[in-house]
Specification:
Blueprint: H1 2-24, H2 31-39, H3 42-55, H4 61-78, H5 81-97, H6 101-118, H7 121-137, H8 141-157, H9 161-177, H10 181-198, H11 201-218, H12 221-238, H13 241-257, H14 261-278, H15 281-298, H16 301-318, H17 321-380, H18 385-471, H19 478-509, E1 518-521, H20 522-539, E2 543-548, E3 553-556, H21 558-575, E4 581-591, E5 594-602, H22 610-614, H23 637-647, E6 651-656, E7 662-669
Helix pairs in contact: 3-4, 3-5, 4-5, 5-6, 5-7, 6-7, 6-17, 7-8, 7-9, 8-9, 9-10, 9-11, 10-11, 11-12, 11-13, 12-13, 13-14, 13-15, 14-15, 15-16, 17-18, 18-19, 19-23, 20-21, 21-23
């Protein structure tokens, strides 16, 4: 009876542990596996944990991360550098798969010195590749390419053909994301040929996916379908959920282009399900965007808008300012450490040159003394011919030695001169950097003055109202409290809009925002934004109209188009009096044998004076017209509009007569034209 109770107790405990592991998404091991683990040495357990982290690399980021953390703890306990390097490497990829790019990059920079200490070329190449992956996802394509080419060089040096094929594919997909599609196809075909030559099935999946995407971009859907289906068969065979999910929603988008909407929805839904189960954040974001394209092509704009909101929320979390700032700070710290090392090496070299120079001077003095002694000996023994001849030979030898040492001294002097020139060049560079820092400090002071001036009134309003509500809590009625809260909300929104616009214009001027032009449905974007502002317009008794003809397709950056149209339409609502109309129209136009999509926003507001027109698109512009509903304006919106439109090879202008409203016109190219 006692034995039966013990077995029941053990069974219940195992059920509890298993349930907890499932809830926490921790790999659950059977009793046999647990007994096997207990029988292993610490080194064997470390090796098995690292193997398990590698096994779940493309199927479950949570499981891979858990095994990597276990391996890292054991490696540190055993002081095992190799085990620690691979545990950190697996940990970084799991964090990267979950979209935690700053943590992943920090881990990789901890991993790289360990592999270099071990002279593990394979580990160095893989780490450089993963650093490139993070910069690629942050849209910093040139930095990503730099790391991919470094990784390719490492793999090529050791004859690692799988690594070489992988880097060719990564270079190809990065070139495609940067808009260089022909170069992307060339590199991907090189990667495919190498992968097929060595039987590297993962490389075949990667390269075939890239080439399929190239044919989609060129409009050759049937060729794209062949490559995608080939890649999908191999991905399912390899149980590679990373590409299995991606290829499903790629095929979903392709079937939508063929108007086969049922298959499009089915494939996209399966791709999203695989990405969510595997917790590949980047793949989930891409699946959301594919649903937007599928439902938009189908005409189901409600579902398209719903998935677009999910896509925007996930994209913003992956590209948050904190993540970018952490990555930038980490990169600056690494660059500073490298620069300090270079300065230390240069100082050591200068010290060595000083020692050499002093030694040469001492040698010359010694030779001069020898020459003097020989000369004296010659004079003393000049009566003896034999001694004279011996002295003559000694003098010739001394002269040769002096000439040789003089040549050495001259060579050292030239080298010292070159080092001085390098130091002068370095000083000149530092001077230029100091001048640049002074200019940046001046701009910062002006920037802070503008921010302080425009933020002072809203902050004073919020502080005064909050203080009044605290001191007179009993005397203030509910209506007054609601009015005070409304004023506080409006003031807060004003501060937020100012800060957002300042950050946006600063990013544009520093070229921190990289546009990615593709074929975009401008008409659908304009219709969505018009719908978003219809309720706000109705609150002011303003009627919003929308109409479009033609394709409405433009070669532009989707995010930039949204910001441009949001600024212009919101301005029309902001400056229009009550009981007026606003017309938003989208048309295809042609100019000098080039096609454009023209978006016009016409209002019945106060219009613009000639003086207003000269300052219309400047930063912090203050115009004669004022918002009609108590709204506020930062004076930055139209400067952002102009910068975005010009970066997309488009045009923007305003047609207005004072007192008769205004029409803002934006034209965007329908395809990529040469500059």
């Amino acid at each position: 009876m006692i034995h039966i109770m013990i077995h029941i107790k053990r069974a219940l405990m195992l059920m509890v542990v298993t349930s907890a592991a499932m809830v926490l998404n921790i790999p659950c091991r059977t009793l046999a596996q647990q007994q096997h683990q207990a029988s292993l040495t610490l080194q064997q357990r470390l090796d098995e944990f690292n193997k398990a982290a590698e096994k779940y690399r493309y199927t479950s980021s949570d499981s891979s991360l858990w095994y990597a953390e276990q391996a890292l703890q054991l490696a540190e306990q055993l002081h095992n550098t190799r085990g620690k390097s691979y545990a950190l490497y697996h940990r970084s990829y799991a964090l990267y798969s979950q979209g935690k790019y700053d943590l992943a990059l920090t881990t990789l920079y901890q991993t790289l010195p360990l592999f270099e200490e071990l002279a593990d070329s394979n580990g160095i190449g893989r780490t450089l590749n993963d650093i490139g992956n993070i910069y690629k996802r942050q849209q910093r394509y040139q930095e990503a390419l730099d790391y991919y080419y470094k990784s390719f060089a490492v793999f090529e040096a050791i004859g690692h053909k799988e690594g070489m094929a992988l880097e060719l594919c990564n270079i190809g997909v990065t070139q495609a994301m940067a808009g260089k599609h022909e170069e992307s196809a060339r590199q991907s075909r090189r990667g495919l040929a190498l992968a097929e030559e060595i039987g590297y099935e993962y490389g075949v999946v990667f390269a075939s996916t890239n080439i399929g995407s190239y044919y989609v971009q060129r409009g050759f859907d049937d060729s794209a379908l062949v490559y995608y289906q080939r890649a999908l068969v191999l991905a399912e065979k390899l149980h590679n959920e990373k590409y299995n999910g991606q290829l499903h929603y790629f095929l979903g988008a392709l079937f939508a282009r063929k108007r086969q909407f049922d298959k499009a929805v089915e494939y996209t839904r399966k791709g999203l399900q695989i990405a969510e189960q595997s917790k590949f954040a980047e793949r989930v974001k891409e699946a959301y965007l594919t649903f937007v394209e599928v439902y938009a092509a189908k005409g189901d704009f409600a579902n398209a808008l719903s998935y677009h909101r999910r896509y925007a929320a996930l994209r913003d979390s992956l590209f948050s300012a904190d993540v970018r700032r952490n990555i930038d700070e980490l990169q600056k710290r690494i660059a500073t450490e490298q620069k300090d090392k270079q300065i230390q090496l240069l100082q050591k070299e200068q010290e060595l040159q000083s020692v050499i120079r002093n030694s040469l001077i001492g040698g010359i003095v010694f030779l001069v003394l020898v020459a003097v002694l020989l000369t004296n000996r010659y004079r003393i023994k000049r009566t003896s011919e034999q001694r004279l001849q011996q002295s003559h030979v000694q003098l010739l030898e001394a002269n040769k030695a002096i000439q040789h040492h003089a040549e050495v001294v001259e060579e050292q002097a030239r080298h010292i001169s070159e080092v001085n020139e390098q130091l002068n060049a370095l000083n000149a560079t530092l001077g230029a950097q100091n001048r640049q820092l002074l200019e940046l400090n001046t701009e910062k002071t002006a920037f802070l003055g503008i921010v302080a001036h425009d933020l002072k009134n809203p902050v004073n309003v919020i502080c005064n109202l909050a203080e009044m509500m605290l001191k007179n809590e009993q005397e203030i009625s509910i209506n007054q409290r609601h009015e005070f809260l409304r004023i506080i909300v409006n003031s807060s929104e004003r501060m937020f809009e100012l800060l957002r616009n300042l950050l946006q214009i600063n990013a544009l001027e520093e070229r921190a925002t990289i546009l990615q032009p593709t074929l975009v449905n401008v008409a659908m974007i304009a219709q969505f934004i018009t719908a978003d502002y219809r309720m706000r317009a109705e609150q002011k008794s303003i009627t919003l109209h929308f109409d479009f003809e033609g394709t409405g397709q433009a070669f532009a950056d989707e995010h930039a188009v949204k910001q441009v149209l949001d600024n212009i339409i919101s301005n029309a609502v902001k400056y229009s009096p009550p009981n007026k109309h606003i017309w938003v129209t989208v048309r295809d136009v042609h100019d000098h044998n080039r096609g454009y999509v023209r978006i016009s926003v016409r209002d019945e507001g106060p219009g613009l004076s000639e003086e207003d027109k000269t300052r219309l698109f400047g930063k912090f512009a203050r115009l004669s017209a004022q918002p009609t509903g108590g709204e506020h304006s930062t004076g930055l919106g139209l400067s952002i509009v102009k910068r975005f439109v010009e970066d997309m090879k488009g045009r923007v202008w305003c047609e207005s007569t004072l007192g008769k409203g205004a029409t803002f016109i934006v034209e965007l190219p329908q395809q990529e034209y040469p500059s």
